[in-house]
């Protein structure tokens, strides 16, 4: 089974890129973030024509998450973190697919930091941590996937010294990510590629993609039951080089 994550940075504005990638990569499950579309403007017909069914949680102009599946039955579990129903941001969606829990998330950016937006990021992270712990206790095969807006280590960013004050790289953010891992989750990319430079995001400015001045902020966290089934992983970096594309590249894993 191939599971992918892709921050599309506007599902309608970048729909041709999304459909081309789906056709070429053909993931069995695809988690999308930053739809930037209200619930009734999600391009369901085009997604279905591409061979996928979809469950989505939209929001006008900002945020938004979706999970697509190809030939696999999905059942929605929740579309907000527990005790977070009052949050107006569409940032979390959880489904059951093939007896596996798939949580698609778009963690807050948090900039400027310090400040209210950074406080919101850490509060959201704490709610995610608590829910992640409960998922592990349930014992089902689980993957928490998406745009975490976290640069885990200096190895995961081009010129880390330039990011020391950024919310994606501040010590509090990295500590929260490490606390999540310490529960028993496995960072799938680093499990298979512990010493390789891997980026998933390149800014639109200063020719970042051309210079390979990127960040690794799109992650797969696997429970033990899925870690033992991990067989492959990668980044479809070439998609970032297509015309009118997102500033993220799709990332994927393969499970036996």
Q: Specify Rg, calculated over alpha carbons.
A: 17 Å
- Overall structural class, as computed from helix and strand content, comes to alpha+beta
Q: Averaging pLDDT over every residue, what do you get?
A: 97
Order of helices and strands: EHEHEEEEEHEHEHHEHEE
Give the overall shape. Answer: globular
Oligomer: single chain
What is the spatial order of strands in the main beta sheet? 3-4-2-1-12-11
Overview of this protein structure:
The chain is α+β, with helices and mostly antiparallel strands and 256 residues long. It has one domain: Deoxyribonuclease I, Chain A, CATH 3.60.10.10. It is 25% helix and 25% strand. The protein contains 7 helices and 12 strands. The mean pLDDT is 97.
List the defining traits of the structure above:
single chain; 256 residues; alpha+beta; Deoxyribonuclease I, Chain A; globular; ExoIII-like; double-stranded DNA 3'-5' DNA exonuclease activity
What's the structural blueprint in terms of helices and strands?
Elements: E1 2-7, H1 15-25, E2 29-33, H2 44-49, E3 53-57, E4 65-69, E5 74-78, E6 92-97, E7 100-106, H3 116-138, E8 142-147, H4 171-182, E9 186-187, H5 188-192, H6 208-211, E10 218-222, H7 224-227, E11 230-235, E12 251-255
Parallel strand pairs: 1-2, 7-8
Antiparallel strand pairs: 1-12, 2-4, 3-4, 5-6, 6-7, 8-10, 9-10, 11-12
